[in-house]
Write a structure and sequence with these properties.
single chain; 158 residues; alpha+beta; 2 domains; two-stranded antiparallel ribbon; 5 helices; 4 strands
Amino acid sequence: MITSAQQFMQKESRENIMENKTWTLTVEADPESPEDMILTFPDDLMESTGWQPGDVITWQDNQDGTWTLTKNKNNMSFRITWDRKLIENQLRAMSAQVNNHYNDGFTQWEIKKDLLEIKYLLDEILETSPTFSGEPEYFELQAKRKTWKILNEKTNSR
């Protein structure tokens, strides 16, 4: 049985090895599909890094003809280029302005049209998105949250 201390030492040892070790690898044409390129990682690299087949590796161009490869910690094969919290905050700011009685109707209407365009785009994206396991439970949870929010608002307004 491996203890936490042993795991820490193994990780620390692997990181120390990585600080001083580099590999030179050659990108080759895939023999089964020559238009595709492959990069074969040697066993000692896999062992030193702790990488496993199926891990997602991020490539960083060092701008000197070399690349730094690191394992993507969340193992997602894409980079998140948006900030959901920022989008939510921007939508809340639009909501505040569309409902601000100090704004004239023209301004409010322009904001509402922007909100509607975003809604239509989201509807279109969601209509063409695949269905995933767990969606019915997620929708049910969201419906319950919305119901509780409405009930709480009615209770607090009395």
